[in-house]
Amino acid sequence: MGFSTVFPHLEVFPEVNTNTIRYNQTSTTFNVDIMMKDADPERYIAGVELLLFYNNTFLDIVDISHGDFFERYTSLVYYYFEVSRELGRVTIASAILLPATSYWPNGNGKIATLKFNATYDLKSYPSVLQSQLNITVAVDLGMTSYFVDTYAKEFPYDPAIGGCIELRMKMHGDVNLDGIVNAGDAVLLGLAFASEPSDPDWNDRQMKTWTAT
Ligand SMILES: [Ca+2]
């Protein structure tokens, strides 16, 4: 039996996570998943390890929970999570301790869910903040791959697909939510002015932006 020509890879989901901070909010929480993709059952995948980097000036990781990628095949799985807040880095590892007898993990599945808290400082932050979510191999631990098989042997992988978190501050009068209050917003407001929810030119988002306090 030969290996498939497709190598597994890790992926951030959703790839772009857009969040809006409302006028009276200073923080918001949301989840980001780390997914396994295209695992080949003939590689006997038994362990995963990765580092994920985030922008720690406005993001914090407040919770990590493991996914079910390995647990669909065995009940004994080891998990390791470590957050380095100073570095904006999280280490995620999991491994099968008791291999299943029939099927090896394959296909797609969830490795972990990260719960982020984003804090917004109205005085010093721009209206749009972004953080890349970059996945890398944990080379400082001696690894050259994200994956090991049941013999603790590393195997090839396709490039990891990182993600992005975007945080937008809603400002009074910013009708089109581009972070600037200018004549363009006034035009949009003018178009919707005095309309009712039943009218064809009613724009629910625009009117709420204008009327919210
Ligand atoms: Ca605007």
What does this protein structure show overall?
- By secondary structure, the protein is mainly beta.
- It folds into two domains: 9-169, Immunoglobulin-like (Sandwich), CATH 2.60.40.680; 173-213, no CATH class.
- The chain is 8% helix and 42% strand.
- It has helices spanning 183-192, 204-211, and strands at 9-13, 16-21, 27-39, 45-53, 59-66, 77-84, 89-96, 107-119, 128-136, 147-149, 163-169.
- The termini are far apart.
- Calcium ion is lined by residues 174, 176, 178, 180-181, 184-185.
Element order, helices and strands? EEEEEEEEEEEHH
Bound molecules: calcium ion
How far the N terminus sits from the C terminus, by CA atoms, comes to 65 Å
CATH architecture annotation of the largest domain:
Sandwich
* Main sheet properties: 7 strands, mixed
Brief descriptors of the model:
mainly beta; Immunoglobulin-like; 11 strands; 2 helices; 8% helix; 213 residues; seven-stranded mixed β-sheet; elongated; binds calcium ion
Briefly characterize the structure.
With 213 residues, this protein is mainly beta. It is 8% helix and 42% strand.
Which secondary structure elements does this structure contain, and how are they paired or packed?
Elements: E1 9-13, E2 16-21, E3 27-39, E4 45-53, E5 59-66, E6 77-84, E7 89-96, E8 107-119, E9 128-136, E10 147-149, E11 163-169, H1 183-192, H2 204-211
